[in-house]
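User: Predict GroEL's structure from this.
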Amino acid sequence: GKESIAQVASISAADNEVGQLIAEAMERVGNDGVITIEESKGFSTEMEVVEGMQFDRGYASPYMVTDQDKMEAILENPYILITDKKISSIQEVLPVLEQVVQQGKP
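Assistant:
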């Protein structure tokens, strides 16, 4: 349970506070959730829970930005193309993109 996860995480991190945070994070996201641990530039240890999906890799074009103040691209119910193949040319995905444009969704 949560206690044993906290113990293992505390030993692995060599820090009880971090171990407790990891156990709490695992409890909150469940078995299918994703936990990302990053080194802080400050002195505090904190946890942020994001509902849904979040990509921290940026966007391909500034035209994708939906919030100019925060420079974020936030999309509601977007279509997402997932492939295990390398896309070398726009021509390879153009038929799919044309269908998405007809739907009028991001």
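The mean pLDDT is 86.
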